Amino acid sequence: MDAFFASVEIRDDPSLAGKPVVVGGRGDRGVVAAASYAARVYGIRSAMASARARRLCPHAVWLPGRYDRYTEVSRDLHELFAEVTPLVEGIALDEAFLDVAGARRLLGSPVAIAIALRARIADALGLTASVGVARVKLLAKLASEAAKPRVQPNGDVEEGAGVVVVDPARELEFLHPHPVRALWGVGPATQKRLDRYGIRTIGELAALPLETVVSSLGPALGRHLHDLAWARDPRSVVPSQAAKSVGHEETYARDLAGAAELSREVVRLSDAVATRLRRSGLAARTVTLKVRFPDFRTITRSRTLPDPTDVGHEVAGVAAALLDAVDTSVGVRLLGVSCSHLGPPPARQLELLDTAGAAPGDPHRLAADAIEGIRRRFGDDAVGPAALAGARGLRVKRKGDTQWGPRDEGA
Questions:
Q1: Where are the beta strands (DSSP E) in 82-156?
Q2: d(CA 374, CA 155)
Q3: What pLDDT does residue 154 have?
Q4: Is 137:143 a contact under the CB 8 Å cutoff?
Q5: Which of 69, 70, 111, 400 is the most buried (most CB within 10 A)?
């Protein structure tokens, strides 16, 4: 998908069309998650430090991001993929591999399928996609990037081809000019080793004898990269596996130190994680706390529960206990809560108010069900843990009010 997060925001708010839109944390420690093409004209890119992005384009529109919204649109996108083939391997919310070999008789050639799918996405979702068609995964990935819009040196945004096809007879001609960093498995450390041989492009890597690559990078990685450099990529499209964990973390504009402030953050993060668990129809047995200190030292602490949970109160209780065992006197730069060992949620009561015979802990689950119902009707900030009341934009409804209104700062 093209500039997915930013494009969803612009689609949902047409007044943003044509403006430089940046999704991410605006603070000095923030990072750009996505940028519209109008923002990329100024040199803004994803993963860029927000402070630098603000200098490049002071008048950009900054949005904090709505992960749940992007997930919802991604589900709609994958439903369109499923209309083409069941062999869909998601890479991220906005990207996937599709094996269309079995769809050719019904839907036509791979090129025809790509063109039709791109049009279907635009029609159904109001978003644009860039599609690569090739014999193997690596080439299809690189072709999809080649199909994207480009910001030209003069600042103009050149519309992308939309679909780029790699002819099997010209694979190496397409592949070899790419920088070697385009290969999966080439990170900064591997690039340093290749620098000793003056390797900058995939073609230059392919020209090296296999023995030289193996001696420099090791047998497994060396053979893997050498094969990729010759367009040998035997990996099949594997339908996406179930998520292994669900988490939420935040880097703060200033270090947190107070026990009360940290406690509130643990509750907020735990509530967000539990909400995602419940909306995904999952429960977890292991809760993990992640803490990063001002010197960037990072630790994790975990605890496994006897029974799975999808209740924010229970997740927060475990995370708070883990935090209590950590010395946070020097301050906390980043805090995160995640849940793993996922499975189906515990059985629920059929009636919300029928608690006869309920097992211990069920009242919390019943309350969580009621909270989820309220949030689905009135929005995620309509109700939440009491510890967060008046702190993070929770709306307040007093006795006698007939409508939900903006949060009262004095409440």
A1: 88-92, 95-98, 131-133, 150-151
A2: 47
A3: 76
A4: no
A5: 70
The CA distance from 289 to 267, in Å, is 12
Nearby residues of 96 by Cβ (< 8 Å), 6 or more positions away: 78, 81, 88, 89, 90, 240
- The CATH code belonging to domain 68-166 is 3.30.70.270
On whether the 245-388 domain is CATH 1.10.579.10, my answer is no
- Report the SS3 class of residue 63: strand
Backbone angles phi, psi at 160, to 5 degrees: -75, 170
Give residue limits of the domains in the chain.
4-65, 68-166, 171-229, 245-388
As a whole number of angstroms, the distance between CA 329 and CA 180 comes to 44
Q: Residue 4, SS3?
A: helix
For the segment 290-330, what is each residue's pLDDT rounded down to a tens digit?
999 999 899 999 999 999 999 998 999 999 999 999 999 99
Q: Which residues make beta-bridge pairs with 251?
A: 334
**3 state DSSP class of 249:** strand
What span, in angstroms and rounded, lies between the C-alpha atoms of 100 and 292? Answer: 44
Q: How confident is the model at residue 278 (pLDDT cuts 50, 70, 90)?
A: confident
- Angle CA(63)–CA(340)–CA(236) in degrees, nearest 5? 85
Read off the pLDDT of residues 158-215 as tens digits, 9 standing for 90 and up: 888 999 999 999 999 999 999 999 998 898 889 999 998 899 999 999 999 999 999 9
**β-strand partners of 306:** none
> Residue 397 pLDDT > 50, yes or no?
no
pLDDT at residue 83 greater than cutoff 80: yes
68-166 matches 245-388 in fold = no
171-229 placed in CATH 1.10.150.20: yes
Active site residue 265: no
Q: Which two structure tokens, joined as six digits, stand for 141?
A: 């990935």
Question: What is the Cα–Cα distance from 96 to 237, expressed in whole angstroms?
Answer: 9
**33: helix, coil or strand?**
strand
pTM equals: 0.69
pLDDT of 370 strictly over 80: no
Tokens of 183: 């290969």
- Burial-class residue 195 by CB neighbours within 10 Å (0-12, 13-18, 19+): exposed
Catalytic residue among 9, 72, 89, 95: 95
What is d(CA 369, CA 352) in angstroms, rounded to the nearest whole number? Answer: 8
Could you tell me the fold of the domain covering 4-65?
A: MutS, DNA mismatch repair protein, domain I (3.40.1170)
Is residue 351's pLDDT more than 70?
no
Query: How many CB atoms are located within 10 Å of the residue 342 CB?
Result: 21
